[in-house]
Amino acid sequence: MPVSTRSQLSGVRPGEQCQSPGRRHSFLRNPHQGLKEKMKALTLLYEQHRQPLAPSHHPSIELLDSNRKNSGEDQKKEQEVVRKNRDRAAVIPRKKTILFSKNEAKENKEPKISDRFAAYSMPRKVATAAVAASRRTSMGSVLDGRGMMGIKKINEELETTGDIGSQIMVFVRLRPMGKKEEETGSRTCVRIVNKRDVYLTEFASETDYLRLKRVRGRHFCFDASFPESTSQQEVYSTTTAELVEGVLRGRNGSVFCYGATGAGKTYTMLGTIENPGVMVLAIKDLFSKIRQRCFDGKHSVLLSYLEVYNETVRDLLSPGRPLVLREDKQGIIAAGLTQYRAYSTDEVMQLLLQGNRNRTTEPTRVNETSSRSHAILQVVAEYQVKDSVNVITRLGKLSLIDLAGSERALATDLRTQRSIEGANINRSLLALSSCINALVEGKRHIPYRNSKLTQLLKDSLGGPCNTVMIANISPSNLSFNETQNTLHWADRAKEIRNKACSVNEEAVQIPEFETEQTKLLLELQKQNSELRQQAVRLQEKLFIAQAHALVSNSPQQPPPTSSPLISTPHSTNRKHKRSILGGGNCFSTPDSMKTRTANERIAQDLQKRVMELETEIERLKKEHVVQLKQKDDFIRGLIAKQGEGKCKSRVGKRGSLLKEDLKSPTHRFTSPQPIAKKRSFCDISAANSPSVIAANGRKTRSHVAPQSPSAPSMLLPLASAKL
Ligand SMILES: Nc1ncnc2c1ncn2[C@@H]1O[C@H](COP(=O)(O)OP(=O)(O)OP(=O)(O)O)[C@@H](O)[C@H]1O
């Protein structure tokens, strides 16, 4: 959908143009003369419309001049205007183009409230779907509290209804102005108000006569918008915390950062060591929440990290050959992707650092360490919770995606690696925009297959998943086109409605009549483990006693009996030969005789004790075996009963998983390929093969370190597809 057209921007109504055809001809004959006349006409028109339009000030206009000092009365008036506008938010067309008169632009750069000419271009496309309508209603500043609570609400709805479709939550994050941008005298063209509304202003160029130095503005409204001062934690808690909560309830979630190169996507996703981003904070949160809730302490968190570079999928944790995408019942998977079992946040951080070092980056004119690939971190969490009667296994997948930024193809004769990269990035982002369009328009066929990126995002866009999109934008007026384009697609994405979000959980309900038996079963299992521990303790005691016996007898005499560990079938009957230097030598004194007798007595006692303990262990072992057998039979019986009453007792449902999958949780986490590559974290460093990277001629980076500020943007809108 084009943002605006010249006819819209002219500020002259079509009817009025028709009234003066002669003048129009004179414009064509002498453009300068025409320009002057046009300016006069516009000034006249402005004067005529000034009064009627005065009450309909747009909030963006007030916000254009941040330094303006208002008198108390002015402030009151403005507050009133803002309040009115808020109230009207539900009925104001979402897409607006605001035109300011030339004089305003010239005199103040930013117009005054009292001297303002604003005209709204009507939205090109009236929203068709009811979803879109409801969404627009929700865009009012405080109309329904959607926004920060949105995902929570969706989750609550899911809680009650089980299955509903969910909308994509769309957030905008404005990054601070970079040093280089400041040095080149960029002006701020974006303002965020009420942590929701984004006002974009286009300052026309001094030499752009055709545009008559008008200042154009647009207004967007998102679930939440973050000004430049927003902390990483705030971004995480508003955008992703609820999604993590959903994952812990067995719902898949996806967060993806979208925007032009240098707009702050990687900063938002990964952050720095001092200011970790969404990926790190989400995993930290996930770990702490799992530990709090996990009923039996057994949980697993599996990680995989891949990149899509030049339309090939690569494993970032174990670089090697490109991976092949396959589709199965669980969705699209990268065959052979390494999955690491992580046990702590620190480990995850290390993995991310490791993976990011392998990520392809190149310096661009905007960003020193521009990501040239789309990176996807997938975290699969499984754990068990227990309510009054059920033990529920929950499985959730969180995908965190840092998309590559777009870059204008440089006018160069050479078809360099960079231009190929750029073309591929744009191709995949274009494919993404086509998918967004198709989803918004409710088409049956969504062209996910057009690129690897969209194939991988199939679950997240329109799939059964809670999805969050964070659109990153730059404040610089030099990046106006990119910012406008990003905001446009973010605005469009709001209208996507994902499929009903299924819950990956298995609840085994214990029926009334079986509750007692289950308790008994648990009790028996507890007793079993206690008996095992007791047996181990006895064994230890026995060893200690034998050790004592050995110490007390040696070197005078060999141990009376061998340890059970070293005993042979005949050891107990063996007669020990006495050494000459051992006991009973010819130099024995009465004292030594006494000592020897005492020692022998002790040894005999100990032998007796050992024998007793051995008998006791044998008895316990036998008892234990019998008890285990009984309990096994009992458990088998219970399982058989549960199997019979499965239809009645099964209360949970599995969205995408099969019953067989549950038997082997690890199987579910992995691709259909065997988890041959599953390794411990220690293997990672060995697994890296920088040579592979070098061979491919790609540069990789060690991100997670403060980056130098960006240079002015030279980028074009990333996808100029028709809306
Ligand atoms: N919210 C922020 N606060 C402070 N600095 C930021 C913020 N967002 C981005 N930056 C800085 O801006 C620069 C560019 O950010 P980043 O690398 O995240 O951009 P990007 O959108 O990922 O770019 P590309 O698509 O080219 O990889 C970095 O130096 C980063 O530190």
Can you lay out the helices and strands and say which pair or pack?
Blueprint: H1 6-9, H2 14-19, H3 21-29, H4 31-53, H5 59-64, H6 72-88, E1 98-99, H7 102-108, H8 130-138, H9 150-161, E2 165-167, E3 169-174, H10 179-183, E4 190-193, E5 197-203, E6 215-221, E7 224-226, H11 232-239, H12 241-248, E8 253-259, H13 265-269, H14 278-293, E9 299-309, E10 312-315, E11 324-328, E12 331-335, E13 340-342, H15 345-357, E14 361-362, E15 370-371, E16 374-386, E17 390-402, H16 417-440, H17 452-456, E18 466-473, H18 480-493, E19 497-500, E20 505-509, H19 512-553, H20 590-644, H21 646-649, H22 659-663, H23 665-669, H24 683-687, H25 690-696
Helix pairs in contact: 3-4, 12-14, 14-15, 19-20
The structure holds adenosine-5'-triphosphate (ATP).
Residues 175-176, 259, 261-267, 364, 367, 369-371, 404-405, 472, 706-710 line the site of adenosine-5'-triphosphate.
Biased composition (Polar residues): 1-10
Coiled coil: 514-541, 596-630
Pfam families: Kinesin (PF00225)
Q: What's the short version?
A:
The protein has 723 residues and is of the alpha+beta class.
